[in-house]
Amino acid sequence: MGNLLPNGSFGLNALGLRQPGAAFSTGGLAVTFPAHTIGIRSAMLPDWELDNSDIGFRIEGVLRGVGFSANVLYYHSQNPSLHGGNAGPATINPFLCDPALDPVSCGAGVTPIFAPPPAPPGTLVAVVPGAEFLARESYLSTRARPYSNSFDIHFPRILLVGASADFYVEALKSAFRVEVAHTNGEEFANTLAPGLYSRSKVVRWVVGWDRPTFIRALNRNRSFNISAQVFGQHLLDHEYIDTPAGPAGFSDWEDNFFATLLIQTGYLNDRVQPRVIAAYDFEAQAAAIGPGIDWLINNNWRLIIGANLKFGRAKNPFDDCGTCNIYPPFTDPLEGTPGAGTPASATGQTGFRTSSINPLGLFRAGPIGSAQNEDEFQIQLRYRF
Questions:
Q1: Per the domain annotation, does 101 fall within a domain?
Q2: Which of these, 230, 239, 227, 240, lies nearest to 204 by C-alpha position?
């Protein structure tokens, strides 16, 4: 992606050009992009300054058998955020021609379809009645363009406030742990935003349960360690709409839940330890199971056998902004400006979209769904001396 912006490239399903006789842009076209149209310009790394450092505070204690903690952390996100569209690098309009080659057709710059007679460069010209205005521009002029696929990489600062509690319930012979955290400043991909990203406050929580349980039919001498967790996430500023071509907006789910389960025991004085790890992503409808066995053969040799098997829904297509109206009137003459139209009118930026698996569909598929075709089997034989 860093090579695309300065040098150009060839892309598939990249622009929503309106086909002759079509009522709206259909996308799915292969397009050759010149330099300064798509790609990544630079990574905005945080400065190594004292006032730019991560800072946190934690207090913990025990009250009536309940261990608790309160936490505050102000830090830079380790997950990069892509700022595109009108929040990214300035780009050219690849549909404008060179006046040196055709001074008659190219000398006046952009003249939108259905527009009034040409006006001097820089004049605002109405595209369609009731639409917003589109500024005329000249060949190879650059400007920030809403919804364009040119990006800068940012690492936003996030404020996290959280708390946790651990306690034991004698009647259930179980240990429980509860954690909750609220973050402010996280950034997510959003194909409804002109900059292709939005910030959202996020609430995350986890409830864990641990219990040693005897299952005599399977193991008379050792208990089974059963550990289960349920993770939850809620985006408070989530944006999402349904279009005729599929969903658009935040590629992350507004609410998502993730569950894990570990079952482990030991045989032959714990020299043989079988285990099963399972995980399920509720919204992505994807699951993973990891059976394994750890065998300490003797003081020198150790054999570990395991697998990682995945099941469920592998495809979670989502709007990739392939039909966004980046270069009006060329990308869709019937849409006045980027963002025009509403779901109800079934026209414009939010009316018709194309969806694909990559890249934003991977966010909805999650870590399990995006690796559906990556089942694994491992064998490790260790010698210690």
A1: no
A2: 230
Element (H, E) at 324: none
Dihedral through CA 314, CA 319, CA 322, CA 324, nearest 10? 180
First to last CA, the chain: 48
**Omega before residue 359 within 30° of 0, cis:** yes
Structural domain range at position 227:
4-96+140-383
Residue 107 lies in a domain: no
Global pTM reads: 0.78
In a domain, 252, yes or no: yes
Provide the number of structural domains found in the chain: 1
For residues 98, 326, 4, 107, the Cα torsion angle rounded to the nearest 10 degrees is 10
Residue 102 in any domain: the answer is no
Closest to 262 measured CA to CA, from 243, 290, 281, 231: 290
Tell me the pLDDT tens digit for each residue of 2-25: 677 777 766 655 555 544 444 444
pLDDT at 357 over 80: no
If DSSP codes are grouped into helix, strand and coil, which group holds residue 289? strand
